[in-house]
Amino acid sequence: MVLEISVERDLTIEDPKTDAYTVHVDTQRILTVVTHSESIVTKWLKDALKSSIKSAVLVGITAETEDRWCWKEKDRHKEYPYDFLCLNIGAQSLVYETWETYFRARHSLVSFLENPRVFVIGRDMANLSRKLKVHHGIEIRNAVDVNELAIRGLRRDDLDLGRYDLDQLARAVFGKQMDLARPEDDFYWKPRDDEFYRLTRCDELKLFWAIDPYLCFLIGLELIEAIDGAASQKKMQKKKKKKN
Fold first, then answer.
1. Domain count, the chain
2. Tens digits of per-residue pLDDT, 158-167?
3. Residue 221, domain extent
4. pTM for this structure?
5. pLDDT digits (tens, 9 = 90+) for 74-126
6. DSSP 75-91
7. 58 DSSP β-pair partners
8. How far apart are alpha carbons 208 and 182 in whole angstroms?
9. What is the CATH number of the domain that holds 151?
10. Distance (Å, whole) CA 148 – CA 81
11. What are phi and psi of 10, to 5 degrees?
12. CB 63, CB 82: distance < 8 Å
């Protein structure tokens, strides 16, 4: 079964720095904010900390870099900072535009990602964490790699879970019912109005970036509960053996 993804824009938002959308993944709704507003980013992060009644807060993460047109060959292989940071806490996603001129809420993000309660889960977390630190001065205190978590949680030696993409991981964890219909990436690049040498994704495709951190969050939550459940069972079995 293929899960359809659709997007609805909230036309009531009049803030020039912010757009709001509802991303539908089958029956699940993800309220998504695309913004470079300092106040909105700060509020979203504060609300995220309040989202969990437990001590730990799980946050899915992905990061995106726009294509750049480079005249010099050496610049084509240059590593550029991230342009978008995408966070998810279940039914809420934040797509934060991190272009240097907009990156005024960095201190809020630094505080959030360094919070010992916050566990950030995504793919290739070693590289993502490195780039955030090098290019943006942001350090993730508790980084969790979703592929490594899947290896530990599923214990499937017959699967190459370390190389799975998010869609493959989702199917491995939740079954074939978690099969997403994604758009074709190749047709969604366009020149930015203000900088002719940079290519940006069209607005609609940016919204699909809300899906990947959502999958990271969903997979992470399922695997952590499975790992915790297995650990609890072992403790119970040990107690029973001692009593006997």
1. 1
2. 999 999 999 9
3. 2-243
4. 0.83
5. 665 678 888 889 999 999 999 988 765 455 557 889 999 999 999 999 999 99
6. HHT-----SEEEEE-SS
7. 119
8. 8
9. 3.30.420.10
10. 25
11. -85, 105
12. yes
